[in-house]
Specification:
alpha/beta, Rossmann fold, 5-stranded parallel beta sheet, binds adenosine-5'-diphosphate, binds magnesium ion
Length: 209
Amino acid sequence: MKLKKGILVTFEGGEGCGKSTHVNLLKDYLEDKGFKVLVIREPGGTKTGEKLRKILLEGKSKISSLTELFLFLASRRELIIKVIEPALKQNKIIICDRFIDSTVAYQGYARGINIELVSKLNDLVVGKKALPDITFILDTNKHLGFKSKGEDRIEVEDKSFHKRVREGYLEIAQKASSRVKVINVDDKIVDIQKKIRIIVNESLTKFKV
Ligand SMILES: Nc1ncnc2c1ncn2[C@@H]1O[C@H](COP(=O)(O)OP(=O)(O)O)[C@@H](O)[C@H]1O
Ligand SMILES: [Mg+2]
């Protein structure tokens, strides 16, 4: 099956809400249908981006919120130029595990950096070509999602931090309702994935050759 243009689908949500699970299930489904699919995750995905990922997620020493913001944005910029834009040109379906909305939810709503500033920096980094076509926010009110790993810099944050992340995501969804779909994940994985596939299929019909 061929597409008129490349498509960017992003998955967002708190720790352990099922992003990786659904990214992989959607990839298998779309590949079975004959689409060219590329799965990527943030931060990382390029040589420089993987180094930044290590600093961001494995580092034990504290870094300031602004430093964190700029490191995420730097990783994203590399990913866009080296990976996302070329794949879009090849009319692939790119599925990205976390993207611009994570920055607004985590560094904006949860860490407290001005939301408008974060959005503007996102715009600067992403440009017009790499805006997501569909974004799924996987949502649950269970504070720590399905599994609390509690390992990296962000997973160790407290309950109120994760509550602010969730509230941020829900506000983002309200502001960008045509792009962003909130999917409740207090359900069986197969049933959640069915809902995701219906939305993706609707969107794909618009872009088929
Ligand atoms: N709807 C669900 N019900 C029960 N367990 C789930 C559900 N979705 C995901 N899980 C499990 O929760 C864990 C975390 O899922 P994962 O996809 O790694 O989340 P994330 O990538 O968002 O951190 C995995 O063990 C996964 O199998
Ligand atoms: Mg994951």
